Amino acid sequence: MTALTRTGPRIVRTIADVRAAVNEYRAAAGAGATVGLVPTMGYLHEGHASLMRRSASENGLTVLSVFVNPLQFGPNEDFDRYPRDEERDRAVAAEAGADVLFMPSVGEMYPRKPLTSVLVSEVTSRLCGASRPGHFDGVGTVVSKLFNIVGPDRAYFGMKDAQQVAVVTRMAEDLNVPVEIVPCPIVRDPDGLAMSSRNVYLTAEEREQALVLSRTLAQVPGWLADDAGLTSDLLKQRMEQLVRRMPLADIEYAEVLTYPDLLPPGEAPLREAAAKERLLVALAVRFGRTRLIDNILLTP
Ligand SMILES: Nc1ncnc2c1ncn2[C@@H]1O[C@H](COP(=O)(O)OP(=O)(O)OP(=O)(O)O)[C@@H](O)[C@H]1O
Ligand SMILES: CC(C)(CO)[C@@H](O)C(=O)[O-]
Ligand code: BAL
Predict the structure, then answer these.
(1) For (R)-pantoate, which residues are the binding ones (predicted)?
(2) What's the complex ipTM?
(3) Rounded to the nearest whole angstrom, what is the distance from the C-alpha of residue 43 to the centroid of ligand 3?
(4) pLDDT for res 6
């Protein structure tokens, strides 16, 4: 599909057309065919581009989906004002090497109110699952639909949404979906802010103060190294203290959990847990109406 990439991705808006594009590629490529899927909600940035580039380097065909999924937004969340820009998405997708750009309407994805939902338990009980009730039911459902529609060999997800990676990986395993979930590193602006479509909502003052997320997380490995007695509770308190120095910051959570099971690491000093298994240190902070998340994964 390199010829398509040179002129930009093929835009498809229906499930039938994306299936036809994938089938056409598989028929032409034969036994060695590999399809990568990059699910997004659009308003693409370098974080999304890194997922597409990775997919393009590992697969013969890369399908990018752009769909703002109403099922994963709560009633008071930003579904209506979520940034949308099709021209920008086409340009980023072309530059990053996507072959097929699937941009369905809400009616195409949900012609009827779905009576079926894909619910992943336990790993959804904390972090964003706790603060956004129903969010991961919407994610599980739409990602399952995308897997069924595209039939990818690999699917690429950013670790900025670390809980989403844990949820989707477990869902695919539990339901025997024949797809490899590929977690990809967080892409940041030069000053450290994790890239996010929602960063566009921030005022200049909020954006400056939002640097507290990445700056706080960057201190965690040093705190662990310097303080043998640092417990999970103490670490959370330290993070909250730093974030609270920003007058516009409203903390939703400051957490440390095992990864990918997302369980509390216990009361013992964190160094013991960190020596044995991966720990996710995660923050969700609101600046005005904008909710930002960031995390680091500590690996033994
Ligand atoms: N900075 C980033 N680095 C790496 N991957 C990212 C980054 N931002 C988003 N992604 C990944 O891109 C995919 C699509 O995410 P999405 O379209 O929701 O973008 P977003 O920028 O996270 O938007 P939002 O502002 O809604 O959180 C997800 O797998 C997400 O983790
Ligand atoms: C995976 C996803 C595209 C499902 O709507 C969304 O949750 C996102 O953008 O991370
Ligand atoms: N990247 C996560 C999608 C959401 O916030 O709904």
Answers:
(1) 72, 164
(2) 0.98
(3) 12
(4) 52
